[in-house]
Design a protein that fits this description.
It is a single chain. This protein is α/β, with parallel strands linked by helices. It has one domain. Helices cover 47% and strands 14% of the residues. Helix 2 crosses helix 3. The relative contact order is 0.17.
């Protein structure tokens, strides 16, 4: 369940507890968490993660035991609004990453007029060495002075004991405030849940495609597509061979299950 100390309103989307706020509130909450010394992982969850959680109770528990699970897609936002959270907005992974890297809140969290995100440190985990190099370079160009204290490109398999030790030593040496995980769902959620107590990092965030987008390797969808809830179609057009089976499955499933919940035909319990 979401940490009760954070005082975050939540909505139930097919049994997954999702924070009913917007990008600005999400960023402010995470800055507060770092400054208060809290630790935990953040699931940035779309329809894909919600549907996978219907079939995998362990994954559902991972979402519901996170520090926060935020609405990455508009369909989850619309579900929340149907339950009265009219100010709920999308917390899109790539946008959240930029907001955190910028490090500014409105109003600021301190009385210092020159407060910037340069006081926070970041670690990048996922993808390939080439992508991480481009991502690091682009973020440093966009946010001068940002502290990216480490990167790690894992193999496309579980880490060996030696690799686990190497990663742990790297993270212990730099103790990042924000540990960014750029893997796919549900791989990134499983990694965060399995490593939040092993690695000396404060906040882990699974942001998936944000690494490729901010490295300049993939184009983000236009704003009107994001707001219309059709970003899945934009991604499908970019990677049809990889994604067509996924979306042929999850889109109709979400429409059917969410209709059952909204009409009161079926109840989806939030449990851990």
């Amino acid at each position: 369940m979401v940490d009760q100390d954070l005082d975050i309103p939540c909505t139930n989307v097919l049994g997954v507890e999702i924070c009913a706020f917007d990008l600005e509130r999400a960023a402010q909450t995470l800055f507060n968490c770092v400054q208060a010394g809290k630790t935990g992982y953040v699931c940035v969850t779309s329809v894909h993660g919600v549907i996978e959680s219907q079939r995998d109770t362990e994954l559902k528990a991972i979402h519901n035991n996170s520090l926060m699970t935020v609405p990455d897609g508009m369909p989850t936002v619309w579900m929340g609004r149907e339950y009265g959270f009219i100010h709920m907005g999308r917390v899109y992974g790539p946008e959240l990453m930029l907001k955190i890297c910028e490090g500014r809140t409105h109003p600021p969290l301190t009385d210092e007029p020159d407060f910037t995100g340069n006081s926070f440190s970041h670690f990048l985990y996922g993808s390939t060495c080439e992508t991480l190099d481009k991502l690091k370079m682009n973020l440093e160009h966009r946010f001068p002075g940002i502290k990216i204290v480490g990167t790690y490109a894992p193999p496309f398999r579980p880490l060996t004991d030696a690799e686990e030790d190497e990663l742990q030593q790297m993270v212990t040496a730099c103790k990042p405030d924000f540990f960014w995980v750029g893997l796919s769902t549900p791989k990134q959620e499983r990694f965060m849940a399995g490593h939040i107590h092993k690695l000396d990092a404060k906040i882990m965030l699974g942001v998936g495609a944000a690494f490729d987008i901010h490295a300049g390797l993939k184009k983000d969808a236009p704003g009107w597509i994001k707001n219309s809830g059709l970003q899945w179609l934009h991604r499908l057009c970019q990677e049809p061979k990889r994604l067509w089976r996924r979306y042929l499955d999850i889109v109709p499933c979400f429409l059917f299950y969410s209709a059952l919940q909204l009409l009161g035909i079926r109840k989806y319990e939030v449990d851990d």
